[in-house]
């Protein structure tokens, strides 16, 4: 259960931010266009990428030695430091949502959703590399729980921001709310960074 919760909060910290994909999902919720389809594509894609990262590191873990482990932990720490710095630097950003409703075909919305998901370089660094690398030393059963927790966070997040976008619009548009969320993410990721640093030192 602890690894399920760890995966959930780690996954939520990675996804709980205003990026291109999340803005797109919120906008579809505000427009009431293909909400379920957009959410399910984003959520299943995250699940696939999360377990892809976990299985890749599980497979290549058979070839790891202490030097490779150290290099991966250093890269993990650098990633976390960069991630935290990025969260700090976007504190001044303004949020704008496009609510203009335009006709779009089923094929068009599927293509657009897949593009926002798989053409986003952060999805590979955050989801595949970070979650796979972070869970590399867990027992195989704990990796499943960790991945499941992160996947649940994605499903919950996408469906919540899309279907509740109208009622949450007051908060979704608030720079103050997102700044407070960012501070929580920075705190959580800083704790993970300290944990990784401890692993490097020892």
Structure description:
By secondary structure, the protein is mainly alpha-helical. The protein has one domain. It is built from 9 helices and no strands. The mean pLDDT is 85.
Compile the SSE list and pairings.
Elements: H1 2-15, H2 20-31, H3 35-60, H4 66-89, H5 106-118, H6 121-134, H7 140-163, H8 165-172, H9 175-201
Helix pairs in contact: 1-7, 2-7, 3-5, 3-6, 3-7, 4-6, 4-9, 7-8
Name the descriptors.
globular, 0% strand, 80% helix
Concise summary:
The protein has 202 residues and is an all-alpha fold. It is 80% helix and 0% strand.
Sheet with most strands: none
Radius of gyration: 18 Å
Q: Helix tally?
A: 9
Distance between the termini: 26 Å
Strand tally, please?
0
Keywords: Cell membrane, Membrane, Transmembrane, Transmembrane helix
GO cellular component, one term: plasma membrane
Subcellular location: Cell membrane
Membrane topology: Multi-pass membrane protein
């Amino acid at each position: 259960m602890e690894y399920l919760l760890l995966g959930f909060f780690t996954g939520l910290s990675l996804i709980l931010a205003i990026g291109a994909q999340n803005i797109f999902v919120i906008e579809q919720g505000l427009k009431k266009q293909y909400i379920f389809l957009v959410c399910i594509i984003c959520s299943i894609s995250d699940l696939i990428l999360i377990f892809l990262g976990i299985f890749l590191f599980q497979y290549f873990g058979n070839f790891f030695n202490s030097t490779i482990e150290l290099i991966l932990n250093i890269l993990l720490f650098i990633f976390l430091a960069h991630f935290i710095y990025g969260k700090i630097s976007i504190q001044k950003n303004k949020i704008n949502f496009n609510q203009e409703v335009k006709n779009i075909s089923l094929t068009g919305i599927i293509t657009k959703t897949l593009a926002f998901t798989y053409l986003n370089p952060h999805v590979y660094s955050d989801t595949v590399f970070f979650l796979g690398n972070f869970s590399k030393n867990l027992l195989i059963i704990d990796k499943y729980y960790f991945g499941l927790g992160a996947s649940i966070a994605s499903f919950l997040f996408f469906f919540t921001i899309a279907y509740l976008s109208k009622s949450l619009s007051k908060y979704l548009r608030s720079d103050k709310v997102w700044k407070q969320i960012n501070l929580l993410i920075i705190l959580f990721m800083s704790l993970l960074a300290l944990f990784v640093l401890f692993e490097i030192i020892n």
